[in-house]
Write a structure and sequence with these properties.
Radius of gyration: 25 Å
Strand order of the largest sheet: 1-4-3-2-5-6
Number of helices: 9
Structural class: alpha+beta
Strand content: 25-35%
Order of helices and strands: EEEEHEHEHHHHHEEEEEEEEHEEH
Shape: elongated
Helix content: 25-40%
Length: about 300
């Protein structure tokens, strides 16, 4: 068994917290009984915001046992195990191999974070060509070629800032009217690792690093406030907006239709005084970001 170890810096290694361990395995096939474990790799926090990458590679058939022993020793020290598609493959595969060799199971009592299901909604938002780990890593850290999948998983950890941004992790800075739209300036709480350029139904977002602008088109003197729970709204074609079904029950069936994301909005009268009300601005921005995200 050959062990390689190196320290990495330069792409937000601080995304790892104390007690975290990124874990990845390499095998000759998907079925544990007929495939061999050929490599295991880990990424753990180092000193001063660095991360330590450790990769062990099999050099002969008997090394599979030693790889598993190393995995047990390393994962035993972890409080949270981070993987990419690990809950579907790496972890159950490892558990079967450990059981076959009579080795202890290091997984009970641990917290788990599988980035694959967590990041799947980001595929369209971030413009990933696929959800393969290598494609995400090349988009997130284009200037650094990783040596193993544990390092690639480390590279994509900062993508959590994108999800957090759409969930409200941003600071409101200012607003102004320009070219028939209201432009809101925002600051993501955590810098975004990729550039975003998205638009939908008069809502537009441009964001990268620590800056973002969200613009909302003014339609006939009004702004659209999009609603998240579309199934609870009906659209009134004559009025040009949606109302909650607790109110639409009083409207004749011929004058309403089930709302869809594109028309599930209320209309807010626009005036320059609206821009002085931060709470109202935040509500409009949040609704626009949800609408853009859920395209």
């Amino acid at each position: 068994m050959r062990i390689e170890e190196y320290t990495v810096t330069g792409y937000r290694a601080e995304s790892l917290s104390e007690g975290d361990c990124i874990y990845d395995i390499e095998t000759t096939g998907h079925y544990w009984r007929t495939s061999a474990l050929t490599a295991v790799s880990f990424a753990v926090p180092g000193a001063s915001g660095e991360a330590v990458i450790r990769r062990a590679v099999s050099e002969k058939e008997a090394d599979e046992y030693d790889l598993l022993v190393l995995a047990v020793r390393t994962l035993d020290k972890a409080r949270r195990i981070i993987t990419y598609n690990g809950t579907s493959f790496d972890i159950p595969h490892t558990k079967k191999k450990l059981e076959a060799y009579g080795l202890p199971d290091p997984f009970p009592g641990k917290a788990f974070l599988d980035l694959y299901p967590a990041y799947r909604p980001l595929g369209r938002i971030c413009g990933f060509p696929s959800m393969k780990l290598q494609d995400l890593a090349e988009k997130t850290a284009p200037d650094r070629s990783a040596c193993c999948d544990a390092e690639r998983t480390l590279q994509i950890l900062p993508l959590s800032a994108v999800s957090a941004f759409f969930d409200g992790a941003w600071e409101y800075l200012s607003a102004e009217e320009a070219d028939g739209s209201v432009i809101f300036r925002l600051r993501p709480e955590t810098p975004l690792p990729v550039r975003l350029s998205l638009g939908r139904d008069g809502c537009y977002l441009i964001a990268s690093g620590s800056g973002a602008s969200c613009s909302l088109r003014i339609f006939d003197g009004k702004l659209r406030l999009y609603h998240e729970d579309v199934e609870n709204y009906d659209y009134l074609p004559a009025e040009g907006y949606a109302v909650h079904r607790s109110m639409s029950v009083f409207v004749e069936a011929s004058h309403k239709e089930k709302a869809v994301p594109e028309n599930c909005f209320s209309l807010i009268s626009y005036s320059s005084s609206l821009l002085l009300n931060e709470a109202s601005c935040r509500k409009l921005i949040s609704s626009a970001l949800r609408h853009i995200r859920d395209l």
